[in-house]
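Protein folds are increasingly written down as discrete tokens. With that in mind, we are printing a sequence and the tokens encoding its fold.
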Amino acid sequence: MIAGSPLPRAVRLPRFRHLSTRLSVLYTALFAAALIVVAVVGQILILNHAKQSVRAELATSGSVYDRIWALRARELASSGDVLARDFGFRSAVASGDRATIASAVANLRERADVPNAFVVDQSGEVIGDGPNDLRSIVSGLPTSLTGDRADATVMTSDGAYRVLASPILAPVKIGSVVFAVPLDAKEIATLQRLSAIPLTATILHRGPAGHWISSDARVPATPALDTMIAEGVSDTTPTTIDLPDGRVFALVKRLKGRNGAPEAVLLLSYPQAKALASYRTLQLGIALAGVLGLIVVLIGSRRLAESITRPITVLDAAAKALKEGGSIQVAVAGSDEIGRLAESFNLMSAGIAEREHRITHLAFHDLLTGLPNRTYFRQQLDADLTRAAKMRRKVIVLCLDLDGFKGVNDTLGHPVGDSLLHCIGGILATLAVDGLVARLGGDEFAIILTDRDDADRPRALAQLILDKLRLPMSVDGHQIGCGASIGIAVSPGDGDDPDTLLKNADLALYRAKRDGRGVFRFFEPALDAAARKRRQLELDLREALRTGQFRLNFQPIFDLKADRIGGFEALLRWQHPERGNVPPIDFIPVAEETGLIVAIGEWVMLEACRQAVNWPGHVRVAVNVSPLQFRSSGFSNVVFQALSNSGLAPQRLEVEITESVFLEDEGGVVALLHRLRAMGVRIALDDFGTGYSSLSYLRSFPFDKIKIDKSFVDTVAQDASSAAIVRAILDLADALHMETTAEGVEDNEQLARLRGQGCGSIQGYLFSRPIEAEMVADMITERMITAA
């Protein structure tokens, strides 16, 4: 509904029934002497209200024009800013590429639906089609606008134009995008249609003699009009003036020109005679009423105005203000129906304001800590970066993640974890009083600092936070030590938009965690390159799994006691279609971090069993299982399925694990090992001797085999301590009735020492490097022939 238009009929039908009783008593007392006079008074009140409505409609129409242009200006400014921020366009402006600029301006003109759009460079050259005198004005517009104004109304030989300029920054200003909207008959007609009364809208400009006139000569030079415009008394408040066509209600909107002075004005007028035409008969009634009736009517109208018109007008104005988003209270006088209505209105207004405040707070703040949330943080960071770019300052983002927070939740419960987060939020807000502290989610916090000529502030704040959080905190009766890691990114070098800056701070945070946690790190470009490389590697891994780029190589395990090949260890290889052979050390960590190792490990298990079923019955296949794959639900089902599908005897499958599988839920790991043993699958403990708990794991579960780590084998022939450790492992395995395999055997001296100490089998380059699956059968056959 247009502001100022009549309320819907359904809204105006209800009456105040109890108030009508009071009016009935008043009218009864006056009925005998002044019935006609009372009726005339009512008409006079209506007539006065009609005059006020005309004036109010003129004022509303003036406000409508301002709002229409403000909305249009925001749309055009947004369109101009989109083009002005385009890197290619800024490059074209900076290099003077007229063809590219003209094409972009033409596209912008069609997209913004404006008849005229231009680009003005710093030298005043105008690119874009339009009237010559308009182009001449546009040429100097960006430098002629005063203050921080971006728009103005100018006059040309073709008429008035509203022009708006948007700067092109790279990062300094290199030009402007300028729109010119004609204030023609179409615009005027639109404004006239929005009015509830048939008012007349006219654009005035200064004539040759300096008087304000209209282009169509409908409004000639009038001293009263010149005075009204010069004094500015009617910019917001309608007044009455005499024009050649008679006396009119008029409102003048002075449209600011380039230097602030108006070059054109908008005249809204409505003939007074037309407004009062329907009330001529009432004027005749007033003349016939008589002095007595006039006195009675004055008394009655005064009481009526005081009891009804004034409070209703106040309530009407308050309701409009409430509709427009304001918070308003009306004064309550009396205890009648209108007084109670005013009280109800005040309660409603207070309730709406409270709910809006609560909703706004919930939308932009974290419920747990009361800190700004990710949405508010993102908006504030965007605003700070925009302001910093103009002032040539820096914006610093610190991303903070708690170390070991999951352990707090798992051991003490989520309520204690929530209390810890609330406590840490308060600590951060206290330490970073010069910045904005936000909780982005989970145990992740972020801080925005704006550069205040203190280059060491980010470093000092980060260290202060780390030192503070290292101290134990009392939370719900628990003493909790919770450290943190921090990543820092600084604009514009590390990013000039919120997403890039926050992403780079996250990369620095990831680097801090990889460097041991409890430290802070600044962003470095190499981190971004590494992250992109890792992301590409992750995508390639998914594609490799989908398209079958993986293959298995097998390294033989030589049985020293039987003097034959006793088994093969399956080794995963990746043949990338572009990068060739990718070393496992490059892609296995990424597969473990992303969880892809579970699916890849399942494929390895199935493929290894499928290949091994064709080997001689005494030859086993060993499959190394990662801790993540081992702890995944359904691992025993994967083993069962691999054996079932291939037909491989369970005792020919050897699952190799490292002691790291025991680090979480040792009881569950041991139970799973027993389930595998129940199937008939052999279990080997890989890299034995490198972990501090290796011996305790031998007590937890009777392994079938111990694999001696290569680090001991490398120096077993030269270093007495290494030889002693290997002998101890072999004696221990013999006492526990476990087989042994020495890994990484590369020369005969190592072989002789291991054979002499009673090692059961060896694996290493001395015997064979890993071979393709197709070569396994030939190697077994060749070895059998050689042994024979």
The chain has a mean pLDDT of 79. The chain is about 50% helix and 20% strand.
